[in-house]
Amino acid sequence: MTTAHTIRIQDEAPTLPPGWTVGRPEVADGAQLWRLARESEVLDVNSSYSYLLWCRDFADTSAVVRDADGRAVGFVTGYLRPDAPRTLLVWQIAVDVSYRGLGIAGALLDALSLRVAGAHGIDAVETTITPGNTASERLFDAFARRHGARVGRTVLFPAVVFPGDSHEPEVLHRIAPLTF
Predict the structure, then answer these.
(1) What global pTM score does this model have?
(2) Taking the CA of residue 77 as centre, how many other CA atoms within 13 Å lie in the half-sphere pointing to its CB?
């Protein structure tokens, strides 16, 4: 793989290497999504079964990036909020460790948002990020800048609402208004 096609100026629309594609996940991708989440070492890893269900039931609001050989090397999962159907909630985003830092997560987020906006007319993207996850904060801040939107931050789930004592608070990042 050459990195010449993935080097980008800050906030420029991210691009993928030649031959790579972004599309809807398929049930067969579920195991790979689970592996990518587990290997991220920062995501809460759900059961492998949940990733299979996600690829079946939320494929319209999720995406995978495939390398030139067709292997899923990154994903973003999301859903439309039932009480705010013009808001895409991004649940998880991960990229194979071999390809991090190349703009792939940004390309995934842009492609998914554009696809969901075309189908559902979204005007906001939300996600939660734990304090100190600067890579995710940079990803979503750059997305907001590329789309001329603001980022509002509020604690959605304080640490005390999680069972046990090992989960950090989840800070809601709301990116709006979006126009596509």
Answers:
(1) 0.90
(2) 23
